[in-house]
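Minutes, structural biology subgroup

Action item carried over from last meeting: produce the structure token record for Regulatory protein, arsR family (Lentzea albida). EB confirmed the sequence was re-checked against the source entry. Recorded below for completeness.
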Amino acid sequence: MPIVMSEPAPEGRGLTILFELEDLARTRFAAAPLPMYELVFTVHGGKWDRLLLPRIRPLAELVRPGRFIPDFFNSARPDFEDAVRQVLEVPSARVRDQIASMLGTTSPWLRSFAAGTPSSRADLRAALHDGFRDLLGPNWSPTRQAFDAEVRLRSSQAATRGLGDLLGRLHPSISWTSPALHVELGWDTEVSLRGTGMLLVPVLNGLTRPAVSMFAEPQPLLFYPVTTPQPGGASLELALGRTRTLVLRALTSERTTTELAKHVGISLPTASQHATALRTAGFVSTHRNGRSVRHRLTRRGWELLN
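Output recorded by EB:
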């Protein structure tokens, strides 16, 4: 089954995922942003500079807006090189079946890729690397920071409200009525997890609605979009003051108090004072690592910058 995108549907229509007790116990968040999915959702979304098309054309031919995403792009590996190897090692028969059923062999390159020719696999490898470098590379560090903040926030919600409540709050098109999770789709189907649980994957790039990959291994995947915060402008400085806004922006990357002071150009006591104020307001989290104290934005801090 390909990676299926959620879509607006009449009330009650969609995918119903049945959970057993063991499924709830095994449902978890991805440990880090998953670069292969971040990339294919970005390309699928279609909002990228068409000047890049010559370099990523093989990827663009396989991941087209308005179509399902072939499941041979399934790779939950957090290292991009590992994910690329996993995609390129998919058996040719599976690739051929997916292309025939979803895309059609409408171009010479697709026919070559469906046939499993080594040169076409090399073309896709190059397109994946170029796509990641040009579309995601410049903002990968903020992506990781936002991902970590999202998972911390959701984990806190699960601890205080329960996993079912958390699942129902991931996106407006997702709802939870025990023992089932409902995802809006244009057609009705019901699936039982049968003890596998699900991997919950926050996506920072390209995705605007949830997506599912129900036959991914070793467990099904539920993707949901998270807005990537962008630095605020003059209005934020007016509310917080210029120095505190600079401190907030600096903590999109984790820093010690000393690193923060040097980055912003302020004294160590002033940096500590601002970090304490932002932590008290819930915009920054602080933890001790050996002798140093390290600060980073919380999800609330990312939302403030947005």
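Discussion: The chain is about 45% helix and 15% strand.
Next step: EB to file the record with the rest of the batch.
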